[in-house]
UniProtKB/TrEMBL annotation:
Pfam families: Entericidin. This is Entericidin. The keyword Iron does not apply. Keywords: Cell membrane, Lipoprotein, Membrane, Palmitate, Signal. It comes from Pseudacidovorax intermedius. One of its GO terms (cellular component) is membrane.
Amino acid sequence: MKRLAALLAITFAVSVPLAGCNTFKGAGQDVQKAGEKMEDAAKKRQ
């Protein structure tokens, strides 16, 4: 039982940072797309 608990703890400890990286990567892509749309809108107004 202790071995299972240790394995679950290790799995959790490794998976949380990886999920966080994907979240920040996705947020960065969203911000980049928003910036591109603003840039396109600014070019159309010129």
